[in-house]
Amino acid sequence: MNVKVLLIIVDLTYINQRAIAIALMWSVAGCFGTSGVALVPIISHHGRDWRHFYHIWLIPVAVSLVVTFALLPETYFKRPTVAFDGLIVMQSATEKLTVYQDTEVDSDIYRDLPAYPQRTGVAGFRDRLGLARSPFASWTAAGRCFIQMGYCAVNPLIFWVFVASAFNTASMVFIGATFARVLIAPPYNMAANMVGTVNIASGVGGLFGFVVWSLLICRIVTWLSRRNRGVLEAEHYLVGYIVPILTGATSSLVYGLVVKHHWSANLIFFAYGLNGFSFVTIMIGNTLWVAEAFPRWAAPAIAVVGGGCYILSFAMSFALGPWIAAHGFQWVSIELAILQMVSGLIAMPVAFWGKTARQAIHGRWAEDRSGALRPL
């Protein structure tokens, strides 16, 4: 679902609008999604009636299903050729601009995308209602997305991005899976109905992610593109990873020290809020970087980066209990912080250094556009 929403936003927005739109989506979804976890103990009567939670939550899930398949628009649309100052400006499927000098009366450059045949009958009626899929889409194209995902997974740039994201998410799992028993136990002895409010702190941190991206990082990226003669490169988004990596590592470290030395419970709220901020900002950076670096492969690349980090982080969660038992909270937090710093601030920039290798996805399907957002 996340991948679908992100792809729709990427396709609906132009490059100058995309950062704000993606940041807003991740921040709002992160805020309400994480804060909503605080309602789980209340709805389930603290685990005594867990079925009640599923009965209640079935309503928004059903509404979401209807909205997803009935109201979301078809976002594939033609980028029209534009006349500007006696020249013709044409945008390709990868958002590359080409400028032509129009010297013919009936120039072919006005047909940058072919017009597909209008259908009749029931199919034509569905087209007019907006209920039909794009004529360029097919089940074969959908199947090829899985092949493309395999190539994306072994691409070193995408690989290190989802590894760094996975360690960041593992930090969230580390805090989220343990803070309840820490706060209920001495010396905190927090009431069970108040423990869930820590999730609200994480949600508020996610909202601050939008503020930082819109007011700080977007301006830095714009400044970098202006220095590059107005051309925005995927490498410019590297600056967007500095803040989430540092804050994610700091949140792990603070939480481990608080639990070890029994500092104020308010610092646990602060650590989880900082962690929520880190998660949202790194996901914003991932989405924007993938859309810019792999425009034809945005769908499989986002699926690999998003899904890969969840799979790897939750796989690590199975080792979390024995890890804490063997090393203790303080050392686990230090080790997680080191993993985040090494993967995010050393390995990933080294992988990004080879600009020419950015789209070097070799193989039989390397030039295939069947799974692309804009196949032409």
TrEMBL record:
GO terms for cellular component: plasma membrane. GO terms for molecular function: transmembrane transporter activity. Keywords: Membrane, Transmembrane, Transmembrane helix. It is a multi-pass membrane protein. Its main location: membrane. Coiled coil: none annotated. It is found in: Membrane. This is MFS general substrate transporter. It comes from Neocucurbitaria cava.
